[in-house]
Design brief:
The chain is of the alpha+beta class. It has eleven helices and 16 strands. 33% of the residues lie in helices and 18% in strands. The strands form six sheets. A four-stranded antiparallel β-sheet has the order 4-5-1-6. Helix 1 crosses helix 3 and helix 5 packs antiparallel against helix 6. The longest helix has 18 residues.
């Protein structure tokens, strides 16, 4: 920890910095070239890394590009975090020209340096040199020098007495999941222990721990936890200093969603099926066994996420002032609501003897889908486009008169980036499964079809 570093002296200078600015394409290329000196990076990997930086925006199914560039390192993504780490290593390499590498550290956009036997003029000169290095690479940096105590990430470090303690921003109030929430029991059980362990690790002793634990205990009590936080003494195991052999395995993860409403032990059933179908002696047992296949529950969207998605859907619907643009409102196929979007609809095909039912969906306006159906009824080369058009052409060839009636069954949310599933497609499949009509034109195998709305978000569709 902090008090084990040898360069901490009472006459040393502490230098804290914060990096601002965007990672540009040239800087990203320089960082990749730098990494290529220490490891092998194939040309294909380089192309994939660069291609992943093409950031695209979508609005109503249309791709948009940024005004000045498509290259962008997205915040919050795994690729963005790894790119920041790579660029950070490159910048630390550049700083070796002005200071020893063991005196400075960098985590994403926050840096910290300890300069022994430093005075005011020396630190000011060093600050200007650091600023010029970052400016040369198209980045801005804010440097604060001659500090005795500094807040770095979630720790407050003191260079004079070597003490350290937890740090929270003034307006940062801890908030944790409720003990009665719909989360896997292991997460709820381990949460207080993890918080206690983290606070103990960033506290130099029990005194600093007790000063900081009040806000966290209050947050835990507010979330329904009764555990009391006690300082965990730091023990150093001599075995930890030994170099251990690390062998990585190719792990296949199965992540079923967890819900309190499900009483079946999904994990136990899954592992039982794994042992049943891939026993010892099976040719695939080396790939699928309890050591290579692991199970970890995933959490369902919380109430806030569900409500926000519902509100956004309602906002879109409220903005649609016109529900129908038919010249003759009496001939509107769906009673003045033909401009509704993201709907699951029903077509009832009525003859003198029989009645047929067809269920479909559309992400765009119902009227556009209705016009596509009319086109398939009139053009014989489109007769196989849907099960409904097949039946209509069959009745035409038999000269059987028919009548069509259209109804909107449900509304749904089409797939957007970040969603786990397409609500619109699932709604259609649910309507097909629950339909009790004897003459349903939809095939039951349609419930196995993949969502077509995900294709618009594929990068290849926008190039």
């Amino acid at each position: 920890m902090f008090n084990d570093i040898d360069i901490l002296l009472t006459d040393c200078g502490v230098l804290a910095c914060e990096i601002n600015g965007f990672i540009k394409q040239l800087l990203n290329d320089k960082a990749i070239d730098f990494a290529s000196q220490y490891t092998t990076i194939s040309e294909q990997d380089i192309n994939i890394i660069k291609h992943a930086k093409n950031s695209l925006l979508f609005h109503h199914g249309t791709g948009w590009e940024k005004k000045d560039r498509t290259f962008d390192v997205t915040m919050g993504s795994y690729d963005g975090a790894e790119t920041c780490e790579l660029v950070g290593l490159y910048m630390l390499h550049q700083l070796q020209q002005i200071m020893p590498p063991h005196l400075i550290g960098l985590y994403r956009d926050d840096g910290l340096a300890m300069i022994p036997a430093a005075n005011g003029p020396k630190m000011d000169k060093l600050r200007k040199q650091i600023g010029s290095v970052f400016k040369k690479e198209g980045l801005k940096i804010t440097v604060t020098t001659n500090l005795v105590e500094v807040n770095f990430l979630d720790v407050t470090l003191n260079a004079v007495n070597g003490r350290y303690c937890p740090y929270r921003k003034p307006n940062d109030h801890p908030l944790y999941i409720n003990a009665q929430s719909n989360h896997p029991p292991n997460i709820i059980k381990q949460l207080p222990k993890m918080i206690t362990k983290r606070l103990s690790d960033i506290s130099c002793d029990a005194e600093e721990f007790n000063k900081a634990k009040g806000a966290y205990e209050q947050a835990l009590r507010s979330s329904g936890y009764d555990e009391k936080m006690e300082y965990i003494e730091k023990t150093r195991n001599p075995a930890d200093s030994k170099v251990r052999r690390k062998r990585t395995r190719n792990i296949i993860w199965y992540n079923p969603p967890y819900s309190l409403n499900v009483t079946t032990n999904i994990g136990k059933k899954f592992l039982w099926l794994l042992a049943k179908h891939f026993p010892r002696g099976h040719r695939l047992n080396k790939i699928f066994n309890k050591n290579t296949v692991k199970l970890s529950y995933s959490c369902l969207p919380n109430v806030s996420t569900i409500l926000n998605s519902t509100r956004s859907q309602r906002t879109v619907e409220e903005k649609e002032d016109r529900m129908c643009n038919c010249r003759n409102k009496a001939k509107c196929p769906i009673s003045g609501e033909c401009l509704k979007t993201a709907v699951v609809y029903e077509a009832t095909l009525q003859t003198e003897e029989t009645q047929y039912q067809y269920i479909g969906l559309t992400e765009h306006t119902f009227k556009a889908r209705y016009n596509a159906h009319k086109s398939s009824f009139n053009n014989e080369n489109q007769r196989l486009s849907t099960e409904l058009s097949k039946k209509v052409w069959e009745l035409k060839e038999q000269h059987v008169p028919y009548n069509l009636k259209w109804t909107i069954l449900r509304h749904g949310q089409p797939y957007r980036g970040g969603m786990r599933a397409c609500d619109l497609c699932l709604t259609e499949k649910l309507c097909i499964l629950t339909s009790k009509h004897e003459n349903l034109l939809n095939k039951r195998r349609e419930i196995l079809n993949k969502c077509r709305h995900m294709n618009k978000l594929l990068l290849k569709k926008c190039l």
